[in-house]
Amino acid sequence: MRDLVITCIVTTLIWTMHAWHSGSGVWIAALASCLLGFLGGYVLCYVYHEWGHLIGARLAGGQMPLAPYAGPIIGLFDLNRHSRRQFLFLSWGGVLAYVSMMVITLVTHFAGLWGLAGAAFAVGGLAFVAQSLSVDLPQIVKVMRGANIQATSAAGANAQVILRRTWQSWIPLALAIAAYNTASA
Questions:
Q1: Total number of domains in the chain
Q2: 31, 43 in Cβ contact below 8 A?
Q3: Taking burial as the number of CB atoms within 10 A of a residue's CB, which of 25, 83, 108, 122 is the most buried?
Q4: Nearest CA among 73, 169, 74 for reference residue 128
Q5: How far apart are CA 75 and CA 116, in angstroms?
């Protein structure tokens, strides 16, 4: 229920920012549209990524609790109790969920929905996808090749690794967006 409320709030905020910017054209409305649109796309991709983890694990028989949590769902996955197959279903479930959200954010942008806020929403979604792929994919591939799940998860969940991979993924994304905007102009 909490995540449904988050989805409704984000959608309402982005629609409101689009209406404010379209109606007024003032720079503060454009700035608010960009900031809230980006944050909204990023947050919704994160929320649905975590739901993808949960659904993937449960499809493989993992008994992860469906309750409020203090961190990402992967933290609730007991590596000692669950199988490699369940871990991989959990991992790929998260990937499939945020790739699906990425498609939604791109459709939002290219359909012209929400104007500037929709473009920022698409960029926020792409930023989450770029970051998550750079963090998750190396771990998934290592586990698929037989690596120890606990060691691989601990190394990949290290805050320094996540921060480094985030910047490594966001810089090419920013360059691609700049090139796209330059070519479109």
A1: 1
A2: no
A3: 122
A4: 169
A5: 36
Under 8 Å between Cβ of 45 and 105: yes
Helix residue ranges, H only, 64-114? 84-110
Domain carrying residue 118: 2-184
Whole-model pTM? 0.77
pLDDT tens-digit profile of 49-96?
A: 888 888 888 888 877 665 544 445 445 566 667 788 888 888 899 889
Which two tokens mark 141?
């591939």
Give the span between the Cα atoms of 104 and 109, in whole angstroms: 9
Q: 44 to each of 41, 63, 155, how far by Cα in Å?
A: 5, 24, 26
- The rounded distance, in Å, linking the Cα atoms of 135 and 125 is 15
**What is the token pair recorded at 114?**
């929400």
Cα distance between residue 172 and residue 55, in whole Å: 31
